[in-house]
Amino acid sequence: MAELEAVIGLEIHVQLSTRTKMFCGCALSFGDEPNVHTCPVCLAHPGVLPVPNEEAIRYALRIAAALECDVAPRSIFHRKNYFYPDNPKAYQISQYDLPLAVEGTLGGIRIHRAHLEEDAAKTIHLGESGRIHGSGGSLVDFNRGGTPLVEIVTEPDLRSAAEAGSWARLLRTTVSQLDVSNVNMEEGSLRIDANVSVRPAGSEALGTKTELKNMNSFRFLERGIEAELARQRELVEAGGTVVQETLHFHPEDGSLTALRSKEEAHDYRYFPEPDLVPLAPTEAMLQETRESLPELPEARMRRYESELKLSAENAAQLAADPAEAAYFEAVRDKAPTVEAQTIANWVTGEMAAALRQADGGAAADSKVTPKSLAALVAMVGEKKISHGSGKQVLATLVEEGGDPAAIVERDGLAQISDGGELESIVAAAVEANPEAAEQIRSGNQKAIGAIVGAVMKQTKGRADGGEVNRLIKEKLGI
Ligand code: ADP
Ligand code: MG
Ligand code: ZN
User: Taking a C-beta distance cutoff of 8 angstroms, is the pair 291, 266 a contact?
Assistant: First the structure.
């Protein structure tokens, strides 16, 4: 049988962090006492009318622009009818066949559409331990009901769980740059459902998909997809067929259980919302939105690779963390003669390690100013201090702040520049390690480490590693 290829599409709900709800003036909140942010509109009292939140529309337009979508000149709100306690109107105001935005792209994955809608209330199902009147039960918190959401739907372009995970992370960092949402998966302000199918590699037709819900971290998203792909592959390879259904992921044991199959799924009886006019953003609004976008992670990554010649790995790492990228650029500004890649190595390598050592925190919040890191990197580059001493100075900077040149002076870390002094230290180290010397002579290059180590110990790391290596070889006549 032909190899089975994974096909994955994601549906992402982004809760907007507007001050008020989508169609009423109630404040948004997370973690407040239940049912304190409600009014006749979001509780669906008879005769009330929705008023669209302009801020939410502007936020949605920012997301649409960041995803390079076409914005519809007129999009329509629809009623999506369903009966459930999380929704007192018995319909959700959403968008259907005329969404706000279509045909976008992010990180090489096509965006099918992005539309505005309102969130449902939060239902809390009580287990055995929470029985009400001896019968068990559920609670409803209407604080969340009516929160503005943007739903983003990708085309089925993702080909593995890992790719889905890293793309979802790119989406999160991108949206987080727009100041429109907290994009917090644990708190539910970013919720991702995955549609998963398999098909013979090389085939164009799509297989039957299942939809996975309840993956509230990127790790769980990847694990959920992984588990479902394994299940479908095993099923199909054994001659079975995939049944279209919605599955709930249980992170505790990695299992998936069916929620409902599509046969019994609701007919939502969509129809245009009669109480709202079409959404028709002006050209001025669209232009203002595009112009106000910051440089987004994908563009930044490309710029770092092509203009600054950073490694793909460093470019991606810095672009994924805007604060770290800003710090990196600030260091670069102060050290214009140092290669960008060298600075990236210090920021993502030595600096990150030194911060971890000292209980973490971001570079920008540390005592190491971009100016002092720039000066330190330059000193190492000019061989005023060794790389090892540079790391030592950095550890001191993280603890105390200050001027790296003064620390070098105070702690006596200036690189040994007297060639004669270093030569005699190397000679002594070779004498003291005859076995290593013999191994090096007989071709074992690795044995040089022992002698380099001895020299570094003797000089307290103040010698230039390259020079020490050269002198050892010279001494041994190889
Ligand atoms: P539905 O009508 O079930 O909601 P859609 O066609 O609207 O399905 O697609 C929903 C999501 O599922 C999209 O992200 C889409 O890319 C993805 N998708 C659709 N068909 C497949 C498939 N066969 N395999 C994997 N993902 C799919
Ligand atoms: Mg759908
Ligand atoms: Zn309200």
Answer: no
Atom of ligand 1 nearest to the CA of 197: 24
pLDDT in tens, 397-444: 999 999 998 998 888 877 776 677 888 888 888 888 888 888 888 888
In this prediction, residue 112 has a pLDDT band, given cuts at 50, 70 and 90, of very high
Ligand 1 neighbours by CB, cut-off 6 Å: 7-11, 153-156, 195-197, 206-207, 209
| Structural domain ending residue among the three candidates 266, 289, 312 | 289
Domain range spanning residue 171?
4-289
Measure the CA–CA gap between 152 and 12, rounded to whole angstroms.
Answer: 5
Report which ligand 1 atom has the smallest distance to the Cα of 196.
25
Alpha helices (runs of H) in 258-386, residue ranges in sequence order:
283-292, 297-306, 312-319, 322-334, 340-345, 352-357, 370-381
The span from the CA of 376 to the CA of 367, in Å, is 14
Angle between helix axes 161-176 and 297-306 (nearest 10 degrees) is 100
Show which of 254, 289, 324 is a domain's final residue: 289
Report which listed range, 164-178, 350-364, 439-453, is most confident. Answer: 164-178
| Average pLDDT rounded to a whole number, residues 274-291 | 95
Cα(141) to ligand 3 centroid in Å equals: 13
**Domain count of the chain?**
3
Domain match, 254 and 324 both? no
Greater model confidence, 129 or 275: 275
Whether residue 462 sits in one domain with residue 377: no
pLDDT digits (tens, 9 = 90+) for 233-269: 999 999 999 999 999 999 999 899 997 654 555 689 9
**Residue 140 and residue 38 in one domain:** yes
284/158 same-domain check? yes
